[in-house]
Each structure stands twice: as C-alpha cells, then as structure tokens.
Design a protein that fits this description.
This protein is of the alpha+beta class. Helices cover about 55% and strands about 15% of the residues. It folds into three domains: about 110 residues, Helix Hairpins, CATH 1.10.287; about 50 residues, SH3 type barrels (Roll); about 80 residues, Alpha-Beta Plaits. The chain has eight helices and ten strands.
C-alpha cells in the first residue's frame, strides 16, 4: 500500500532516485485507480440499465422503480469509490466506519420516514391493492388515487382527498372491495309479526329477479334470520359485480320500501307501549 511505501521512503534521505521511484509507484497506482474508476462507471451504467429493465418488467410503481434504481446506482458508485481509494493506498476501514455511523444517525433521525418507506415497498411488492381499487384502511374508505414511497392517496366517497402514511395503513386491517370480481350485498329487512312471511319472501324474490345487476350465480338467498324484539328480520343476500355493489345496494333498499308500501307490508320500528291504570282511593 502507498502509505507503507511513503513511510519507508520519506524518512530516508530524499534523492532523485527515491523521488523518481515514488512518482513511478504513485503514477502506476493512480493509473490503475483511474482504470478502475472508468471501468466501474461503465459497468455501473450498464448494470443500472439492466436493473431498471428488470424492475419495469415486475410491474412496480414508477416511483418505486426510480427510487430503487437510484439507490442501486448510488451503492455501486460508493463501492467503486472505495475500491479507488483502496488502490491509492488510503485506509478505507475508517471511511466505512464513518459512513456506517452517519447512516445510523440518519436512520434514527428519519425513523418514521423509513418505516413509511418500508411499508410502501411492502404495499407495492405484495400488491394488496392497486390504483382505482376501493379499499378500507386506517379508518378511511375510498378509491386509491396513488401509491407513493411514503404515502398512499385515497379519494373518499364524498370526494375528499386523504393522504395516509404507509406505515399507518400497513399496521391496520386493509379491506379491498375490488380484489374479487363479485361481492355479496348483506341486507336485514324487518317486517311486522302480523305480516305473512311467505308473501314477504315472494315479494323480495320478485324484486331481486327484476334487478338485472344481481347475478344468477352465486344464487341470492332469502331467509328468516331472526325473531327480533319488534320485527321478523329477513336476511337477504344477493350477489353483484364488484363495481355495481354500492349503487345496487341503495336501489334494492329503495325498491323494497316502495314495493312493501304497495303490498301493505309493514316495516316496524322500535316502540314502547304505555299502560295507565287508575287506582281507586
């Protein structure tokens, strides 16, 4: 190494031969270091393009692809610089230790951001949801507008734009309503105890049959599910395509109410009977 050579030459009497020897050795090492640097740059650029090509084929988010590409490029450049410094005779052990200490300090300072970054990578790699999916997570229900490195943007059903930190989203349960091609609508329809339950079942079945958005398979189910305090509760379970879920559910509720009014079927509500007794004195 160059530092050992300098120790051996510098203490001795400097003469032209020693100076020429020192310059020659330094020139050789400098030339080798230059070749390492130039070849390293060429190799790094080629490898960086290859990494980007592989990442693009994996259908990752463009932001994640760019970040991982830049991260790999920076890591390769750092390795090349360390190799060049080592060839020039500089001790890289202390440099690596310094970089490690600096990285630890930065990591502690950016602990929250790093957790969001790690969560973002998990979301993109495992693809729990994608853009335009309807999800529920971190107490928010809405459509995914974008998945970034640190945050996920969600547009709520009332058109508010909510930016959720990825760490908060990944720590909670995530419900993806668009993960499957169809969903089941769960309705609880209460009728009066005085109504004929066979007629109620027939009316609900006719409403379901007349709704074109309800699927034939899986078949809808209509059952008496509960004898409540104030009503006989029917559990109505039709299936629809995922994108028709919300509007079909609202239309079913409205159509059931209108049809019940025409058929004279009563939808009861909680009530309390009060009896007054007169007490003779």
């Amino acid at each position: 190494m160059l530092d050992r050579i300098l120790i051996q030459i510098v203490p001795s009497k400097i003469n032209p031969e020693n100076l020429i020897s020192l310059i020659t050795i330094f020139a050789i090492r400098f030339g080798i270091a230059t070749l390492i640097f130039l070849f390293g740059l060429w190799f790094t650029k080629r490898l960086h393009k290859l990494i980007l090509k592989i990442l693009k084929k994996s259908n990752l988010d463009p932001t994640v692809i760019s970040f991982l590409g830049n991260l790999s490029y920076a890591a390769l450049i750092t390795i090349i610089i360390l190799m060049v410094l080592a060839e020039l005779g500089l001790r890289t052990t202390s440099i690596v230790a310094l970089l490690g200490a600096a990285g630890l300090a930065v990591g502690l300072a950016l602990q929250g951001s790093l957790s969001n970054f790690a969560a973002g990578i998990i979301l993109v790699v495992f693809r729990y949801f994608k853009v335009d999916d309807l999800i529920e997570g971190a107490g928010i229900i809405g459509y995914v507008e974008g998945i970034k490195i640190f945050t996920t943007t969600v547009r709520t059903l009332d058109n508010r734009l909510v930016i959720i930190p990825n760490a908060k989203l990944i720590e909670d349960n995530i419900t993806n309503y668009y993960a499957k091609p169809y969903l089941r609508i769960d309705l609880v329809i209460g009728v009066s105890y005085s109504d004929n339950i066979d007629k109620v079942r027939q009316v609900i079945a006719e409403i379901i049959d007349n709704e074109s958005r309800i699927l034939d398979y899986p078949q809808a189910t209509i059952h008496v599910g509960e004898l409540g305090d104030n009503s006989v509760n029917f559990y109505v379970r039709p299936w629809v395509k995922t994108h028709d879920y919300i509007i079909t559910k609202f239309d079913l509720i409205e159509n059931i109410k209108k049809r019940f009014d025409l058929e004279g079927i009563t939808i009861p509500f909680p009530q309390r009977d009060l009896y007054l007794y007169s007490q003779d004195k």
